[in-house]
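Fold this sequence, please.
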Amino acid sequence: MKTLQHMTRQEISLLLYFESCAVDHNGKVHSERISDNEREIAKRWSDEGFIQFGRIALQYARGCETSWVFLSDEAWSLAHEERKTRAKFGWENKNYLTTQEKRDLE
């Protein structure tokens, strides 16, 4: 079982990119947005069953969307955990006040 603590920054970034692809692009991956090293990570993860990753059949490939990804339940859980952590950090470090926070200061 993978943990975020044992993943590199590049692996976490790739996982979050794949999550975005899965949610926003029906699993289609823009090939120019991942490096050769990240392709190797994706292949390893696919071999391990962490994700499924492969090429889109040529007649269905459009532009740079030449690969697809499908996340396992474990990958979804880790992506969610990292998104939640980043959202909390962002909220705690926001550079604005909500209307309620402003009212509370008055």
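The chain has one domain: 8-105. The chain has a mean pLDDT of 95.
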